[in-house]
Structure formats: C-alpha cells, structure tokens
C-alpha cells in the first residue's frame, strides 16, 4: 500500500529560511492510495463487539494505534488532542473488543513498567466475542444461581480438556498450556500466574459473574482431573491489569 505523507509537502515557506514547525505525525497525515483506488470511505467507523458503530474519537484513537508499531497513552493523547481520560477509556474498550492489545515494557528502574498499545491483526480477532456476550447475558438472567451454573459448566469443560491430555507434566504446566491455548497470554511469576489477556474481555466486563465464573471453573476442572489435589483460585482485575491465578500444589 502506497503512503503519501502530507506533512512533507511545503508550500511557499521553504524560501524564507525558517524551519517548519515540527509536530507529532498522526494518522490524518497519511492518505492511502488503497482508499482512493477502491473508492472506500476514509471516514468509515468500525463496530464494537455489540455491533455499535465507533464514535469518531474512538475510531481516531484506533487509527492512531494502527498507524504506528506501538504507542503509549501519552503519545496517543498528543496525537489526537483528546483528554487523557477519554483516550484511556477508548483504549480499554478497544482492547475489550479485540482491536488492540496492551504490552508492558521491560522494567527500567523503579515504578511500574510502561504500557504500550499495539493493533491486533483482525484475522486473529476472536470471532465469537459477540456470541459470548449474548450467552453471558442469557445465563446472567437466570437468577442468583447463574454464577454457580457458569462455574459448573467451566469445570466440566476443564475436565474434558485435561482428560484428553493424560501425558506427563505437572498440573501447573498443564494449566499454563491450557491458559495459553485459550488466549489468556499467561505469565508465570513463580508466586502466581498472570493472565495478561482475556479472550472474552467485553463479555467479562459486562457479565463478570458469569464469564469469570466459567474461567475459574475451567482452571479448577483442569486441576481436578489431574487428581493431585492442586488448588486453584482466580482473582479478577479490571483492564488493563492482569487477572491473577493462585496455584497451591500439594506438598
């Protein structure tokens, strides 16, 4: 795809000897020939997992992330001119809908590592996000027994997965493997396992009592099927913080 940078075109100012003002380049600086050739609307706004069209500002934040390899929140604030809280809210929802993902930079000194945002290849986006929300709403509407029913369903799911993998390895190793395959992007810190991604974040934000119960049941079902008494608990955290899995092996 050919990109033309409109900021590189100078009109009548090069003879003055003045240096052109420098600013952060944004997605609006680029005109794609692909849009012109295919007669597509450059202002096309995509949709959320609930099939609602993005607001203009949310779509702009998404395009800024897509225009670069990665960007931190401060860079996106500078590029869009939006309020920091507005940008953070859009980033949270875009991650929940599977358009972007957060990546923590390696620690450098004191304090928490910075978070950068990258675009997700839409060919790998979860196609069942909307269905998961619909099912979570249905189960959640069944009353106070919904969380228990959801956890039982997840437990049975986890048992089936573990029964199909009777090979060697510890329960912890199997839990990490299953979490990775299910899209949780786990990180084993030794003390706990951090789930850096949620494959159904939008549904989990909408119905945590259902979706998180299913995921907790999944992990416990895997552990129970191994029969070694390993105890597993899931501690939920709001995005972009990772959820935490505590695994207590039998001594």
Spatial extent as radius of gyration: 22 Å
What is the end-to-end distance? 58 Å
The CATH class of the largest domain is identified as: Alpha Beta
- Helicity range: 40-55%
Q: Structurally, how many domains make up the residues? A: 2
Oligomer: single chain
Average pLDDT over all residues = 78
Helices, by number, come to 9
Largest sheet, in brief, is: 4 strands, antiparallel
Number of strands: 9
Strand order of the largest sheet: 6-7-9-8
Query: Globular, elongated, flat, extended or rod-shaped: what is the shape?
Result: globular
Low-confidence stretches: 1-25, 27-42
According to CATH, what is the topology of the largest domain? Answer: Muramoyl-pentapeptide Carboxypeptidase, domain 2
What does this protein structure show overall?
The structure is a single chain. With 251 residues, the protein is an alpha+beta fold. It folds into 2 domains: 3-121, Winged helix-like DNA-binding domain superfamily/Winged helix DNA-binding domain (Arc Repressor Mutant, subunit A), CATH 1.10.10; 129-248, Trafficking protein particle complex subunit 3 (Muramoyl-pentapeptide Carboxypeptidase, domain 2, 2-Layer Sandwich). 41% of the residues lie in helices and 14% in strands. The chain contains 9 helices and 9 strands. The strands form 3 sheets. It has a 4-stranded antiparallel β-sheet, with helices on one face. A 3-stranded antiparallel β-sheet has the order 3-5-4. A two-stranded antiparallel sheet has the order 1-2. β8 and β9 (243-248) form a beta hairpin. The longest helix has 19 residues, at 208-226. The radius of gyration is 22 Å and the shape is globular. It starts with a strand and ends with a strand. The model is unreliable at 1-25 and 27-42 (pLDDT under 50).
